[in-house]
Amino acid sequence: MAIRSFFLFILFFSSSLSPVFSLYEDQVGLMDWHQQYIGKVKQAVFSSQRAGRKRVVVSTEENVIASLDLRHGEIFWRHLLGADDVIDGIDIGLGKYVITLSSGGSILRSWNLPDGQMVWESSLQGPKHSKSFLLVPTNLKFDKDNVLVVFSNGRLHAISCIDGEVLWKKDFEAESFEVQQVIQPPGSDLIYVVGFAASYQFEMYQINAKNGELLKHESASFSSGFSGEVSLVSTETVVALDSTGSILLTISFQDGKISSQQTPISNLVEDSLGPAVIIPSSVSGIFAIKTDAVTVFIRVIGEGKLEVVEKTTHEIAVSDALSISEDQQAFALIQHASSEIHLTVKLAHDWDGNLLKESVKMDRQRGLVHKVFINNYIRTDRSYGFRVLIVMEDHSLLLLQQGEIVWSREDGLASIIDVTTSELPVERNGVSVAKVEHNLFEWLKGHMLKLKGTLMLASPEDMAAIQSMRLKSSEKSKMTRDHNGFRKLLIVLTRAGKLFALHTGDGRIVWSHLLRSLHKSEACQSPIGLNLYQWQVPHHHAMDENPSVLVVSRCGPSSDTPGVLSFVDTYTGKELSSLSLDHAVVQVIPLPYTDSTEQRLHLLINADKHAHLYPKTSEALSIFKREFLNIYWYSVEDQNGIIKGHALKCKCTGEVADEFCFDTRDLWSVVFPSESEKIVATVTRKLNEVVHTQAKVVADQDVMYKYISRNLLFVATVAPKGSGEIGSVTPEESWLVAYLIDTVTGRILHRVTHHGSQGPVHAVFSENWVVYHYFNLRAHRYEMSVIEIYDQSRADNIDVWKLVLGKHNLTSPISLFSRPEVITKSQSYFFTHSLKAIAVTSTAKGITSKQLLLGTIGDQVLALDKRFLDPRRTVNPTQAEKEEGIIPLTDSLPIIPQSYVTHALRVEGLRGIITVPAKLESTTLVFAHGVDLFFTQLAPSRTYDSLTEDFSYALLLITIVALVAAIFVTWRLSERKELQEKWR
Amino acid sequence: MAFSCKNSSKFNGFSSCIKMVMVGTSAIMMQQRTLAMEASLCVKKSKKKGADSVTRPNSQISAAMAAVTPLLLLLLLSSAPSFSSGSRNAYNINGRVKIPQGLGLGTKGYALPGRMSNVKVLLNGGQNITFLRPDGYFSFHNIPAGTHLIEVSAIGYFFSPVRVDVSARNPGKVQAALTENRKGLSELVLEPLREEQYYEIREPFSIMSLLKSPMGLMVGFMLAVAFLMPKLVENMDPEEMRRAQEEMRSQGVPSLSSLLPGGARN
């Protein structure tokens, strides 16, 4: 109790309005780390600039365009485009502009190559939706101006490379015309637009590149139709497949005349296996087709004759063509062989002669090669050297040169799906001994330096020494558990199906594992990782058992495809086992029970609403049976606007006798009227949240009891009209309704309507309060509201006489089935920014005050004290309320720049914020992820239980020494004085 | 690492006080900056079919406007051909972001972090994102009529979101206002309301700050007691002084030397 009151005192003591999180500039990187990524590369263009540093410009699936240093793989500059603004093509124009075509071909932008500044932006419209193509012809000039040729939305544009002006445009309005290729033969003033009409007609338009005039239009019909893509084999020949995928059509349109040749695949490949697809490639004279098992390279030898040059069953990746001289084209080919990859560079017209053949050792955890980009350079002996950029299955990007991996980027980390944490191994005697300070002198010298630093007496060299010393001396990157719980492993699951363990100290990758269960297989066509759960967290057996995580994934995009479970050891990254389930996984419920080996029980709900218990052991079953009647859960069907509560009924009654399968029953359902309400957000409390005390002492010695229930659900619904974007509705026809629903009984505890408001709603639930962010259409500003819920049934307990007479109900059990007497308090405030994510700090014991972490639209994370969102704020708080720490009410929430936890950094493409308690009560660990990763430690009420990093021991030592000296001096003086007095 | 609780609380208080002082000063610095308004806004209407050009702000009109009414709430009309509002119309919103040069260069140790190339302009909470041209202009294409919200994200600066009304009834009529202070914009020129300082500034070592801290106050008080009290005692009446001393002796107040182990000898 004494400790508790002491903590309360500290909290009170430290509560001042100054920003709690604040950092000096020289403290950057001390407790935080920031990593920048770009995502899986879709397209790469090498800058051919002779001078300056070599660059490669890439566009990625995370919708990033970036310029990378070819020597080291660092990012020069990077831009993340909007989510709807998907990049269709990139290229380099005039050697100094990066051209991007995005938004389905309707936005064309040009960026300055050296610094990434946008130069111009053009909006391209057209009559109808179509494929889009971006061509940057090198020799097509138009009044000294280089021209870009863009085909998008059924219209061909010629655009000036310098200012983005449209020079001419030509519509292709024919209803059924589907463009397949846009070709600009080098050295001519012609543009060919080829495509299909009505799926059996081949159309060719020849256009004058100077003015967009249509020169020729030819068409030919093919009764067998077309399927899939066409491949360009020369500037005037394309290859397509017929609708059955078994006949190759070689169509040439030399001089505007269409001639064609049909070759059944079975003529080329004896044992043809099912329908084939053309692998798009731009290598002239050669194309590749792929059937289920074989990849066949076919050469076109004039007049539409085809010849098979190679047949392989290996996984293979081909680059686009690279012209190395006037009439020579080279391309790269990568083949897999167990633990190596073989890179071959060939000339387009000479299949058998290899320009280059190298083998590179490849980490198996990177999976297959997905994409290859080739670039050449001239060696000192004037021969050609080649470097290739490869994109792997785990989304990483590697540069190969001279048989070696020059650099690699782990860009899979740009697309994190789920995050969990794991403890590090316990420090064992003899395993890793902490390094003691070398000697006292060194130690003292270091602290003297620090003292100089704090007193601002340090020279720049001293400052640098301090910084490096701090980074080195801190034990933050050790691989063992620490006393304060700052060192942990962040286990992240990426979209590529790879699991990474990041060390919280410095963000390095401890291990990574490409999940075997997430590999494509016969049974599982397109596996997707869904969630991570802590499967086993050993406390009693911490010394001899490793913790493990459960990865839940499923075999396809729809929710009724069978699920896959894999169990991964978090110390070693080994996949312990994996289970292919025969049922789907719609919902995973981690139960608050563990078995004797501390494996957590999980309940998996399938599409037919059967519950399956994991782990499938008899012990788990017996534990589960004991708690059978106490298990409740809910499900949300956002499409239908229904929230349902469920409980277990009995064993499965189906034909399969499985004692781990249970039938469920619906307990209650809340149906929202579809014409007026649409569910946009549902939030519950975090399962592992700790609440320190239920009582809240308010100003006048009064006590309020928080209504703390794990089974509260916050639901926000908006008017169906208002579920669109901002500005699409008027305030009159839009509203937002917030509910607090008990998930055991389905009782609606609170309901509030915000008229004239709309989504998107971001909400966070903690203890007895929920905070949500939405848009107020009337004020045209964002708003944040707080609802706090208090238990009234315990309010009478403050009567001392009742306590004395034992009439209180403090010890009576709480049942959710008894009608709770609750009151709610709420308040709303304006908030400036749009939000992308919202989270709340969590600490080990829940004593420390809370901060909200707001991921703003600018990709920053702002820490906002919960006291700003206190429904008891008034304009003029009384003296008592002020003492309690209530802030006078203002209409908007303050944004204090010093409380941005990301300080001057951006977490580009922010998607989520995760908080994990450290062992030290004052501190919480914050991990924000998007395209970038950011990690820091936060102390919402300051570090009241430990000394700060920059605490000067030297100052303390000097003070003590000075005090001791002073004591001795005064002692001597007083002794002498006393002696004198006695002599007197 | 964990220190004894009592001590940590003291140091805690020590640092909180310093931070409060610093926040105060930075706030004053921010207020001293004035905002200059200069701007241009131009909304050109283009039907979905046949809209192809990038509409550039009419700088002549805007310059004249800016000269006449720099800070008034007014609607800016831009010439646009009138179309019947039967089909789905789409508009372009053009504007400009202006970051006054020199803002932020005055403060020590604070590098200007937000380069123009890293500034993003966001419409309706990220529905559309665009970037700035070298001269600071930006445009959103194919925006339906209605009320929109434009936000500017620039590291190091605080921009107020701007409410932009694109009218369907009067094509090309645009109304813009800062949502933070409800100030109308004659033209869509967005300027930072203030600079954002993400780091605490280390105050140079000074005697005053040390004295102002709780530790300093305590030491000062103790020194005052140690040195001023004897002076007060000296000024006392000798009679009274003797009486007090006698009283003290009779009560046996221990002197410092008698408290220490060495003092016991005499």
UniProtKB/TrEMBL annotation, chain A:
Signal peptide interval: 1-22
GO biological process, alphabetically ordered: protein folding in endoplasmic reticulum
Single GO cellular component term: EMC complex
Domain EMC1 first beta-propeller: 23-411
Gene3D superfamilies in UniProt: YVTN repeat-like/Quinoprotein amine dehydrogenase
Primary localization: endoplasmic reticulum
UniProt topology in membrane: Single-pass type I membrane protein
Top-level taxon of the source organism: Eukaryota
Membrane-spanning parts: 951-974
Residues of the ER membrane protein complex subunit 1 C-terminal domain: 766-983
Pfam families for the chain: Beta-prop_EMC1_N, EMC1_C
Locations listed in the record: Endoplasmic reticulum membrane
Keywords assigned by UniProt, alphabetized: Endoplasmic reticulum, Glycoprotein, Membrane, Signal, Transmembrane, Transmembrane helix
Family: Belongs to the EMC1 family.
Subunit comment: Component of the ER membrane protein complex (EMC).
Name under which the protein is recorded: ER membrane protein complex subunit 1
UniProtKB/TrEMBL annotation, chain B:
Coiled coil: none
Transmembrane regions: 215-233
Main localization category: membrane
A GO molecular-function annotation: carbohydrate binding
A cellular-component GO term for this protein: EMC complex
Pfam assignment, any one: EMC7_beta-sandw
Keyword flag Signal: yes
Residue ranges, annotated region (Disordered): 241-266
Membrane association type: Single-pass membrane protein
Protein name: ER membrane protein complex subunit 7 beta-sandwich domain-containing protein
Species: Gossypium mustelinum (Cotton)
Taxonomic placement: Eukaryota, Viridiplantae, Streptophyta, Embryophyta, Tracheophyta
